[in-house]
Amino acid sequence: MRVERALPTREASDLLDLVQTLVNREIAPRAAVDEERAAFPRDLFTRLGRAGLLGLPYPADYGGGGQPYEVYLQVVEELARGWLAVGLGVSVHTLACFPLAGYGAPDLREALLGDLIGGELLGAYCLSEADSGSDAAAMATTATPVDGGYLVNGTKAWTTHGGVADFYTLFARTGGSGPGARGISCLHVPASTEGVSAAPPERKMGMASSPTASVRFDAARVDGTALIGERNRGFGIALAALDSGRLGIAACAVGVAQAAMDIAVDYARERRQFDRPISEFQGVGFLLADMATQVEAARELYLAAARRRDLGQPFGARAAMAKLFASDTAMRVTTDAVQVLGGAGYTRDHPAERLMREAKALQIVEGTNQIQRMVINRHLDDRG
Amino acid sequence: MNIVVLVKQVPDTATERKLTSDDKTLDRAASDGVINELDEYAIEEGLLLKEKHGGEVTILTMGPEQATDSIRKALSMGADKAVHVSDEALHGSDALQSAYALSRALGRIEFDLVVLGSESTDARTGVMGAALAEYLGVPQLTLADKVDVDGQAIKVQRLTDYGYDVVEAELPAVVSVVEKINEPRYPSFKLIMQAKKKPVEKLTIADAEIDAARVGLANATTETVDVAPAPPRAAGTIVKDEGEGGVKIAEFLAEKKFV
Predict the structure, then answer these.
(1) Residues of chain A positioned with their CB less than 8 A from the CB of B200
(2) How many CB atoms sit inside 10 A of residue B71's CB?
(3) Which positions fall inside the Acyl-CoA oxidase/dehydrogenase middle domain (chain A) (predicted)?
(4) Which one, out of A308, A371, B243, B252, has a CA that is 20 to 30 A from the CA of A362?
């Protein structure tokens, strides 16, 4: 089924046309082979940067696209429909730019933001550590204030684009030894900084083309100007970034689910058993109908949250709901798509099994779905 | 150098294309309109020539209101402005009539070079470049896979069955291009935003001084007598390799004149 989008402006619909063309011609055709080879498609990100797609929700004054989240997220969804490694990569890059765009001092923004959102640089977001995952405030990495700057020591884990990024948006302790949310700061660290190195990528069950790696900071020295926002007040920035980032994950999940559904529908209309297409059997037809309904509901949920964000209203609970519902939907729909394709679906000759492996990641990243439920529960007493 | 690129909106080849039952013209509601694929190469060539020699690229389109989508896309690839000839009276015009109408519109535009795709994916007559050049009284250089401009001289490589011919002429001229000529660029979001502000001049047949008696279905020089869907493809030839499969394939290709 074709995705019918209600876009707010003509340039938004032209933008989605451009993205669809890029996905169909340049991105989707490479996904299966590159995933099999675990090849990171750096050239595609360069191409997206040139097309102006790496800074869509950020101000046009700095080279961004000046687009509402409602539009930006549909671009992410469309990219993820073609290849999750690319859609997720754009979402993570956008997350990595969020602190500087929202909290950076004017001088720092002037110096860096144009390159981050209007160019071809790729970012990564360093929050988690081996012993600090869901409990992000338990981090141990330190950025010790020294004369004119900071000395960073520690290892960040599960960093998307670790080892391939051009810059890291890092959260580290600047105020004593912790523990707790106080005393954490946000820093901009170029990947070329001496003392910054990445471990070999994790061997994941899916998304082999999107490198996830530990990033080590070994007496890495950054300037005092690298501080984003106020010192020791960085944890609030991290949480705010994740509220928006979750919408990106929700959009990615809808893209993956849409891709799986398209494959299942095409297959079920073509595959004949007992002298008719299998989609004419209620057992398959109802499954397809349920898939379509869930995908549509997931899309509308993230868009509802996005529109609240665009209006400046609280959206954190809705973003958590969208991430939870969309990634659970992606898991269910991709699993059902494998079922519709039967034996063929279980082979690597068809993309359904790859999408199923990819969907699993989305229930885990940027706050597991259990953490999303905690966030939602916490919001039940307010009106957000 | 002032370059005019002809852009035709055609039904998307990825969808099922239909003709209307009443007058056997294209059913535009049946499928999405897209830029004729070869015209994207023409736009790219126009932009490359502009980058090399300076000047402006103007898009010229004849077609109904919805063709504005294709015009905007062409502008978001980097063209500077557009002229859109749109009039109910043009409905059902055949290739010759369209060439006449376009030549009238071109009479209002200052140009050194007209670039177009060598054929469209819908009608596939492949005569527009030649017919247009005749109406304009300028040289035609068709099926180009390479274009060089030096001052007032233009030289193209004209693709043939046996290789290519080198064809030279003086500007102004009409050039039709084949898909080997370049790799069309994608728009960027920046250019999409700029395209909104680029001028698009709308012309009726009266504005372009097109004679109503020489265009439209009723006055067409050709007539669609009957239409039928394309027959399904015949089964292919299966070559069984019993030690001389390679020879058999070579013979097959030679017979079909592929080698």
Answers:
(1) none
(2) 24
(3) 124-219
(4) A308
Q: What are the residues facing B201 on neighbouring strands?
A: B83
State the CB neighbour count (10 A cutoff) for residue A1: 12
Residues B48-67 as b or e (16 or more Cβ within 10 Å = b): bbbeeeebebbbbbbbeeeb
Average pLDDT, chain A: 95
By the CB < 8 Å criterion, does B72 face chain A? yes
Provide the phi-psi class of B11: left if phi over 0, else alpha when psi is between -120 and 50, else beta. beta
Instruction: Give the CA dihedral A223, A225, A230, A236, nearest 10 degrees.
Output: -80
CA distance linking residue B119 with residue B125, whole number of Å:
6
Cα dist from B167 to B12, B46, B147, B154, whole Å? 33, 18, 10, 8
CB A313: neighbour CB atoms within 10 A?
12
What is the four-CA torsion angle of B121, B41, B129, B95, rounded to 10 degrees?
A: 30
Q: Which two tokens stand for residue A173?
A: 């302790």
- Whether the CB-CB separation of B82 and A23 falls below 8 Å is answered with no
Q: What is the pLDDT of residue A327?
A: 98
> What does the pLDDT look like over A123-154, one tens digit per residue?
999 999 999 999 999 999 999 999 999 999 99
The residue to which tokens 């010192």 are assigned = A231
**Chain B contact present for A73, CB below 8 A:** no
* pLDDT single digits (tens) A240-259: 999 999 999 999 999 999 99
DSSP B78: T
Q: Where are the domains of chain B?
A: 3-229
Instruction: Write out pLDDT tens, residues B133-158.
Output: 999 999 999 999 999 999 999 999 99
Write the pLDDT tens digit of every residue in A73-95.
999 999 999 999 999 999 999 99
Q: What are phi and psi of A132, to 5 degrees?
A: -145, 85
Q: Residue B4: exposed, middle, or buried by beta-carbon count in 10 A (0-12, 13-18, 19+)?
A: buried
Closest by CA position to A326, among listed A262, A258, A377: A258
Residue A236 tokens read as 């609030």
Q: At B222, phi and psi to the nearest 5?
A: -125, 160
Distance of residue B187 Cα from the nearest chain A Cα, in angstroms: 7
CA angle (A11, A301, A89) in 5-degree steps: 60
CA B225 → CA B22, B24, B29, distances in Å? 12, 9, 22
| Cα gap A339→B66, rounded to integer Å | 42
Domains in chain A and their CATH numbers?
10-117 (1.10.540.10), 123-235 (2.40.110.10), 236-380 (1.20.140.10)
Residue A179 corresponds to which tokens in the numbers above?
């523990």
* B128: number of Cβ within 10 Å: 24
Chain A, residues 9-28, CB within 8 A of chain B, namely: 10-11, 14-15, 17-18, 21-22
Do the chains contact at B196 and A10, CB–CB below 8 Å? yes
**Type of residue found at A118:** G
Beta-bridged to residue B9, according to DSSP, are B35
B197-252, pLDDT tens digit by residue? Answer: 999 999 999 999 999 898 888 888 888 888 888 888 887 878 888 888 889 889 88
- Domain boundaries B3-229, CATH class: alpha beta
Q: Is A52 within 8 Å of B189 when comparing Cβ atoms? A: yes
Nearest to B73 by CA among B231, B211, B177, B198: B198
In whole angstroms, what is the distance from residue B99 CA to residue A20 CA?
33
Q: Does B192 sit within 8 Å of A14, measured CB to CB?
A: yes
Tokens for A317, please give them: 């609970």
